[in-house]
Inverse folding.
C-alpha cells in the first residue's frame, strides 16, 4: 500500500515532468507575439464594454498579434470575435477553456486553437506561458484571480515582466487606490510593484504600453538567424501601429458598469 510520502514523491515527480514539458512547449511557441485578454463571461453583446473589447481585439488583429482568452462567452467572446473579424490579419485566436463542476461554460465559436483545462492552476499557467502582454477588461472574481495571479508572478520574478493594462479607469481605479492606501500604506507591497500595471480608457492607449514589448520581441527575433522573417514581421507590426495611431479618432471608452 502506498504511503503519503510515496504519493507526495510521485506528485512532485509528475510536476517536474510537467514543468519540463511546459518549458519545451514555450520554446516551440515563442515565434508568435500574443496578448492575453481577461474579462467577464457575463457581459452580453449589447453591453458597451463588449464593443470596446471587440474593437481592442480588432486593433491587435490588424497588427497580426495573436489573442488569448478563456475561450468562453461574454468579453472572452468579444475578444476572439474581434480578432476573427479582421480577415486580412494574421493573428491566431486562442481559447483556454475550463471544465467547471457545477456549470457548463461553452466555448465561443471564434477560436482557431482550443485548449481545455480541468484546473484553474494549469489554465493560468498556460495564459502566462503564451502571452507577452495582458489586458484586463471589467470582470468579476475570476478576472480578479487572473489579474492578481499575473501580478504576483511578475512581482516575485517567476515570469518575465510584461505590461498589464487595465481597460476602463472608472472600473479599476478604485481597486488600485485601495491597494495603494492599504497594501502600500501598510508596507505589504513595494512602490515598484505598481510599475507594470497601467489603467487606460481607450484601446489606443492600451497599445501604447504594448508597443515597447513588441520592440523587445523584434530585437529578440532579430538576434537569431532563424528569426529573421519574424523580426521583419514585428517591424511591420510597429510601423502599422504608428500609421494607425495617426489615423485613429478619439471616441473615448464607454465606461463599464460595476458588475461582474
Amino acid at each position: 500500500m502506498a504511503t503519503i510520502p510515496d504519493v507526495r514523491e510521485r506528485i512532485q515527480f509528475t510536476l517536474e515532468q510537467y514543468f519540463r514539458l511546459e518549458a519545451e512547449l514555450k520554446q516551440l511557441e515563442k515565434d508568435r507575439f500574443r496578448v492575453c485578454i481577461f474579462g467577464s463571461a457575463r457581459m452580453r453583446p449589447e453591453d458597451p464594454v463588449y464593443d470596446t473589447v471587440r474593437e481592442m481585439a480588432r486593433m491587435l488583429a490588424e497588427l497580426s498579434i495573436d489573442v488569448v482568452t478563456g475561450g468562453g462567452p461574454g468579453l472572452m467572446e468579444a475578444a476572439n470575435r474581434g480578432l476573427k473579424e479582421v480577415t486580412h490579419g494574421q493573428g491566431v485566436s486562442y481559447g483556454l477553456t475550463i471544465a467547471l463542476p457545477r456549470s457548463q461554460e461553452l466555448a465561443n465559436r471564434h477560436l482557431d486553437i482550443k485548449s481545455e483545462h480541468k484546473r484553474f492552476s494549469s489554465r493560468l499557467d498556460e495564459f502566462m506561458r503564451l502571452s507577452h502582454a495582458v489586458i484586463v477588461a471589467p470582470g468579476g472574481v475570476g478576472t480578479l484571480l487572473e489579474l492578481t495571479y499575473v501580478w504576483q508572478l511578475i512581482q516575485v520574478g517567476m515570469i518575465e515582466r510584461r505590461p498589464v493594462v487595465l481597460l476602463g479607469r472608472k472600473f479599476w481605479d478604485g481597486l488600485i487606490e485601495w491597494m495603494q492606501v492599504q497594501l502600500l500604506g501598510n508596507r505589504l507591497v513595494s512602490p515598484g510593484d505598481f510599475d507594470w500595471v497601467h489603467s487606460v480608457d481607450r484601446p489606443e492607449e492600451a497599445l501604447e504600453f504594448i508597443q515597447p514589448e513588441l520592440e523587445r520581441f523584434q530585437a529578440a527575433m532579430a538576434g537569431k538567424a532563424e528569426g529573421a522573417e519574424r523580426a521583419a514581421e514585428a517591424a511591420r507590426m510597429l510601423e502599422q501601429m504608428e500609421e494607425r495611431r495617426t489615423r485613429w479618432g478619439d471616441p473615448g471608452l464607454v465606461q463599464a458598469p460595476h458588475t461582474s
